[in-house]
Design goal:
It is a single chain. By secondary structure, the protein is mainly β. The chain is 0% helix and 33% strand. The protein contains no helices and five strands. A hairpin with a 5-residue loop joins strand 2 and strand 3. The relative contact order is 0.17.
Length: 90
Protein backbone atom coordinates (compact mmCIF):
# COMPACT_ATOMS: atom_id res chain seq x y z
CA UNK A 1 0.00 0.00 0.00
CA UNK A 2 1.37 3.43 -1.04
CA UNK A 3 0.90 6.48 1.19
CA UNK A 4 -0.35 9.62 -0.63
CA UNK A 5 1.89 12.68 -0.26
CA UNK A 6 0.62 15.64 1.77
CA UNK A 7 -1.00 18.39 -0.32
CA UNK A 8 1.56 20.97 -1.45
CA UNK A 9 -0.26 23.86 0.30
CA UNK A 10 0.16 22.36 3.76
CA UNK A 11 3.91 22.80 3.48
CA UNK A 12 3.42 26.54 2.88
CA UNK A 13 1.16 27.16 5.87
CA UNK A 14 2.28 29.23 8.83
CA UNK A 15 0.71 30.70 11.94
CA UNK A 16 -1.97 33.35 11.54
CA UNK A 17 -0.96 36.97 12.06
CA UNK A 18 -1.82 38.53 15.41
CA UNK A 19 -5.36 39.88 15.51
CA UNK A 20 -7.05 42.62 17.45
CA UNK A 21 -10.55 42.82 18.82
CA UNK A 22 -12.78 45.15 16.84
CA UNK A 23 -15.41 46.96 18.90
CA UNK A 24 -19.02 46.23 17.99
CA UNK A 25 -20.91 49.24 16.62
CA UNK A 26 -24.60 49.20 15.82
CA UNK A 27 -26.53 51.74 13.73
CA UNK A 28 -29.83 52.81 15.31
CA UNK A 29 -32.44 55.47 14.55
CA UNK A 30 -32.68 58.27 17.11
CA UNK A 31 -36.42 58.38 17.97
CA UNK A 32 -36.43 62.18 18.40
CA UNK A 33 -34.46 63.29 15.35
CA UNK A 34 -35.11 60.25 13.07
CA UNK A 35 -31.40 60.35 12.17
CA UNK A 36 -29.18 57.27 12.17
CA UNK A 37 -26.57 57.24 14.93
CA UNK A 38 -23.90 54.68 15.76
CA UNK A 39 -23.70 53.23 19.26
CA UNK A 40 -21.06 51.00 20.84
CA UNK A 41 -21.63 47.83 22.85
CA UNK A 42 -22.30 49.98 25.96
CA UNK A 43 -25.01 52.09 24.28
CA UNK A 44 -22.84 55.20 23.93
CA UNK A 45 -23.04 57.28 20.72
CA UNK A 46 -19.87 56.96 18.64
CA UNK A 47 -18.62 59.70 16.30
CA UNK A 48 -17.25 58.12 13.13
CA UNK A 49 -15.84 61.32 11.65
CA UNK A 50 -17.21 64.09 9.50
CA UNK A 51 -18.78 63.34 6.17
CA UNK A 52 -19.51 66.16 3.74
CA UNK A 53 -22.39 66.33 1.33
CA UNK A 54 -22.27 67.04 -2.35
CA UNK A 55 -24.60 67.83 -5.22
CA UNK A 56 -24.17 67.11 -8.87
CA UNK A 57 -26.22 68.34 -11.80
CA UNK A 58 -26.25 68.35 -15.58
CA UNK A 59 -27.42 71.64 -17.09
CA UNK A 60 -28.33 71.51 -20.78
CA UNK A 61 -27.67 74.63 -22.88
CA UNK A 62 -28.94 75.43 -26.37
CA UNK A 63 -28.07 78.32 -28.66
CA UNK A 64 -30.09 79.43 -31.64
CA UNK A 65 -28.55 81.89 -34.10
CA UNK A 66 -30.43 84.92 -35.41
CA UNK A 67 -32.88 87.28 -33.86
CA UNK A 68 -35.96 85.13 -34.37
CA UNK A 69 -37.27 87.23 -37.30
CA UNK A 70 -36.24 84.66 -39.86
CA UNK A 71 -34.54 81.33 -40.28
CA UNK A 72 -31.05 81.31 -38.92
CA UNK A 73 -28.11 79.01 -39.20
CA UNK A 74 -27.43 75.79 -37.35
CA UNK A 75 -28.27 75.38 -33.70
CA UNK A 76 -25.78 74.20 -31.14
CA UNK A 77 -26.37 72.39 -27.88
CA UNK A 78 -24.22 70.99 -25.12
CA UNK A 79 -24.38 70.47 -21.39
CA UNK A 80 -22.36 71.60 -18.43
CA UNK A 81 -21.85 69.42 -15.39
CA UNK A 82 -21.55 71.04 -12.01
CA UNK A 83 -20.26 69.40 -8.86
CA UNK A 84 -20.32 71.13 -5.50
CA UNK A 85 -18.93 69.57 -2.37
CA UNK A 86 -19.28 70.91 1.14
CA UNK A 87 -16.08 71.14 3.12
CA UNK A 88 -16.25 68.69 5.98
CA UNK A 89 -14.44 69.66 9.13
CA UNK A 90 -12.39 67.11 10.83
Amino acid sequence: MTQAPAPWGTQRMGPYAATTTVPQYTPVIDPETQIAVIVDEHGRTVELGSHGTSTSGLTPTTTTPGDGAGPGGATDSDSTESYDQDQSSG
